Amino acid sequence: MATSQNVRLTGSLTARFNRDPLGLGRTAGQRGAEIIAGIRAEMIHTPETQALSKLSGRLTAKTIMALERDGMFNYIPARYESMTDLALRHAPFETGLTLVEIAAGFSPRCIHLARRIPEAQVIEIDLPDVVVEKRKRLEKQSGIRIPANLSWRAADLSQQMLAEVLNYRLVDVVIAEEMLLYFAMDDCRHILQQIWGSLKRGAYLVCSIGYRPGIQQAHQAARFFNRQAGNFLGSVRSEDEAKRLFEQSGYDEVQVMRISELAAERKLPEVPADIELVVLARRL
């Protein structure tokens, strides 16, 4: 049984202010979000990905991508597409549907989900600075319509309980892409317990978690990324370890998937290294 209501995290380095030599952001979390937004803009050409990235993020992304010439970063669009598809496939299309993305960064996923499911309430949660900047970028682009059923909540989940941020509302789907990478494993377990406590019975978490063998394959690019965005802390050595982590956090049904296999199923460009695993976990 998860004990989400009485757990507070020790804090994440991603939300602390520190030196920013490249002009990407004042915290490791902001810099990580900017780099991923830059990679996404380079690989997924939509008005939203362009609007949500900035020049310094795109230039840094190009530098990182140049360090790996074998398609290593195909995992970014593959992760995005596969996690979006899993959320849509497991969302109950019924009255009162609520989807939540935690640490959404500068991802356009919730805009697309809100458009695809206009009857749903779609909520993004991220650090206050990220939320303010994201809304500013979207509002500057006259051609991008922000769906009326999309809303934002500004919060640092290392300092505030998820249940409090959601006003103790239970939800149908939670998405957490890349977030666990930046937390120590004990904190990852606490985050998963918090999410478990905010899910309805039968609801799903769609989550990614670092995979050490894949990270080691991408060591050169990963080192550059780590210097800007902080070390990859939340990672597992095997799919079985990932499954145990989620089961110990209270989830009843846990499926662990490789991004490379999900990309192949969707006929996306080949992913040569699984830097993360995708986990679909259910609360019964």
Task: Please tell me the overall pLDDT.
Answer: 86
The gross shape turns out to be globular
What are the low-pLDDT stretches, counting only 5+ consecutive residues below 50?
1-22
Strand count, sense and barrel status of the largest sheet are: 8 strands, mixed
User: Tally the helices: what do you get?
Assistant: 12
Distance between the termini: 11 Å
Can you count the beta strands?
A: 8
Topology pattern, helix = H, strand = E: HHHHEHEHEHEHEHHEHEHE
Radius of gyration over C-alpha positions, nearest whole angstrom = 17 Å
By secondary-structure content and strand pairing, the structural class works out as alpha/beta
Fraction of residues in H or I helices? 40-55%
Beta content comes to 15-25%
Q: Would you give an account of this structure?
A:
This protein has 284 residues and is α/β, with parallel strands linked by helices. The chain contains twelve helices and eight strands. It has helices at 28-43, 47-51, 55-67, 75-90, 109-116, 128-140, 162-165, 185-197, 212-217, 219-229, 239-248, 259-265, and strands spanning 98-102, 121-126, 150-154, 171-176, 199-211, 235-236, 253-258, 276-282. Strands 1, 2, 3, 4, 5, 6, 7 and 8 form an eight-stranded mixed sheet that branches. Helix 6 links the parallel strand 2 and strand 3. Helix 1 packs across helix 3 (55-67) and helix 4 crosses helix 12 (259-265). The radius of gyration is 17 Å and the shape is globular. Mean pLDDT is 86; it is low at 1-22.
Summarize the structure.
The chain is an alpha/beta fold and 284 residues long. 43% of the residues lie in helices and 18% in strands.
